[in-house]
Amino acid sequence: MNIKAVIFDKDGTLFDFQDTWGAWMGKILERLAGTDKVMFENLAKALKYDAETKTILPNSIVIAGTPVEISTVIQRFKSEMSVLDILSLINKEAESAPQTLVTDLKLLTKHLRSQGLKISVMTNDAERPAQRHLEAVGVLDLFDYVIGSDSGYGAKPDPTPLIALAKKMDVLACDCVMVGDSTHDLIAGRSAGMLTVGVLTGLAKHEELTNLADVILPDISHLVAWMAGQNN
After folding, report:
1. How do residues 198-218 score in pLDDT, each as one tens digit?
2. Structural domains of the chain in order of their starting residue, each with its CATH number
3. Nearest to 146, CA basis, from 12, 14, 25, 4
4. Which of 56, 91, 115, 119 is the most exposed place for a label (fewest CB within 10 A)?
5. Statement: the pTM of the whole predicted model exceeds 0.70
């Protein structure tokens, strides 16, 4: 094989999902609901958020949905706000959400670069918050490109943004690997003609990913060894 590039999902792949977005979601709902407990409970139910444990449930739209999709759900309960107003609020709050890296990204990307690989990120998060998250932990400049669902190429599971990234990196889609923690990531990768690597640092279980992945790894720290084996 001749793998030339790796495209990473962000949340649940580069960053621990619950540590980042569990606490963030609670703050968003508190801001939206204010002192209205019923509103808070309705929003939590609609977004599948467990306020007691401060965790997002596995079937929540927050996991793989775009900020616009999340805002649309919220707007059903906040009719006095437009979807764009809600989108602005959650994107602004998302920029400062604390991030917990799954592994040492500086070391990981160094090893991948040593194999001659190009590296980018495609997330269903908005582009600006995604870049801020990577910048906050000092790794933004390690990636060739970082695009989000609002970058003009669409969102996963549509393969279009992945194909666009391959073009940006000047490689064929079939020479890329898509690495992600959700079915959206892997469906997009398969549809784009890429190899797919599932990781178990998000909320999806092994059995949910197995039919969509060429390999399933515990986390991205295992990627270097797997990649070296593919190109030998």
Report:
1. 999 988 999 999 999 999 999
2. 5-16+100-230 (3.40.50.1000), 17-95 (no CATH)
3. 14
4. 115
5. yes
